[in-house]
């Protein structure tokens, strides 16, 4: 019998997972998994819980939470030789990665998709010994995501980011950076850089429209120095994926990217603070097996064509 470990964050999002846990457990048991649970107790506990699941040779980890919880589970398994498969039940405030995999936000519907058993080996990113699945970035613009207090996020969800973003827009300043990617060099004043593994980022579904999650490459998107009016225009273009041709945007695919800056620049990993630059981003090719939706597989196949 296969063994599954549910690692869930009881404080995630609107804190609804616990109420459905018994039903979720029943469904996994019925599907042939011997299933046990771990509720995370504090920041970092998801990493330890995932390491324990590795040691105990669980076949499957089901991470129930937001991007933060999934990220901790990935940190816990990514550097191990034995890596359990990973499924996600998105119950967080931000669930960009689950959305990228086509996992629905309703708990039982997410379980339906997981139990269809579509598994794919996907790339993940590594920078300075930390891992990310979705996106890493830097520049004043990316610093917004951790300016939003957790309470506000619980109450307002995604909207909290936008409110904070609008409040901060006028104070955004460019940063001078040197970016080396696959043997080439770019020196530029930038508003932000994004190293993307998926194309579903903070509500912008088409930020990196060609980002494929199993090709061994990141999509590097850089917004060069721009004034407020230009920024708003480009952000509008980005909502429909029409920004890459703009002269303020630099875009390429690369699997190894180094970013340095003389100025202090914070790193953002999957929406959370990830320390300071410099950083070297490395794409780990098809490193973890994820449970995905049929729609995800269809979409990925279309990108190849
Ligand atoms: N019991 C706990 N109490 C407080 N924090 C926790 C607990 N368990 C996990 N965490 C932390 O909460 C972070 C955010 O969790 P997660 O992404 O699942 O939920 P979220 O609702 O989307 O979170 P956020 O409030 O950051 O948007 C995790 O990265 C983890 O470090």
From TrEMBL:
Pfam families: DAGK_cat, YegS_C. One of its GO terms (biological process) is phospholipid biosynthetic process. One of its GO terms (molecular function) is ATP-dependent diacylglycerol kinase activity. Its cofactor is Mg(2+). Gene3D superfamilies: 2.60.200.40, Probable inorganic polyphosphate/atp-NAD kinase, domain 1 (3.40.50.10330). GO terms for cellular component: plasma membrane. Keywords: ATP-binding, Kinase, Lipid biosynthesis, Lipid metabolism, Magnesium, Metal-binding, Nucleotide-binding, Phospholipid biosynthesis, Phospholipid metabolism, Transferase. Residues 1-131 form the DAGKc domain. PANTHER family: LIPID KINASE YEGS, SPHINGOSINE KINASE. Belongs to the diacylglycerol/lipid kinase family. This is Diacylglycerol kinase. It comes from Gracilibacillus dipsosauri.
């Amino acid at each position: 019998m296969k063994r599954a470990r549910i690692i869930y964050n009881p404080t995630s999002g609107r804190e609804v997972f616990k109420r459905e846990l018994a039903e979720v457990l029943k469904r996994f048991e019925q599907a042939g998994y011997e299933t046990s649970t771990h509720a995370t107790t504090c920041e970092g506990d998801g990493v330890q819980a995932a390491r324990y699941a590795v040691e105990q040779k669980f076949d499957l980890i089901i991470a129930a939470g937001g991007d933060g919880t999934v990220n901790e589970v990935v940190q816990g398994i990514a550097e191990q030789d034995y890596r359990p498969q990973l499924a996600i039940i998105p119950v967080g405030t931000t669930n960009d990665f689950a959305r990228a995999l086509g996992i629905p936000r309703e708990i039982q519907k997410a379980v339906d998709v997981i139990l269809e058993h579509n598994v794919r080996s996907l790339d993940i990113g590594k920078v300075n010994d930390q891992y990310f699945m979705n996106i890493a970035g830097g520049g004043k613009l990316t610093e917004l995501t951790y300016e939003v207090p957790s309470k506000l996020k619980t109450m307002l969800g995604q909207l909290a980011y936008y409110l904070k973003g609008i409040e901060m827009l006028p104070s955004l300043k460019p940063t001078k950076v040197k970016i080396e990617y696959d043997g080439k060099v770019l020196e530029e004043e930038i508003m932000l850089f994004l190293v993307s593994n998926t194309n579903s980022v903070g509500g912008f579904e088409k930020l990196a429209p060609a980002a494929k999650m199993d090709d061994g490459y990141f999509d590097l998107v850089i917004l060069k120095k721009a004034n407020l009016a230009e920024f708003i225009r480009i952000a509008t273009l980005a909502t429909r994926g029409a920004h890459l041709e703009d002269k303020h945007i630099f875009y390429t695919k690369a699997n190894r990217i180094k970013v340095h800056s003389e100025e202090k620049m914070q790193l953002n990993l999957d929406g959370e603070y990830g320390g300071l630059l410099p950083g070297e981003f490395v794409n780990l090719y098809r490193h973890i097996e994820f449970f995905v939706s049929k729609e995800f597989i269809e979409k990925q196949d279309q990108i190849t064509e």
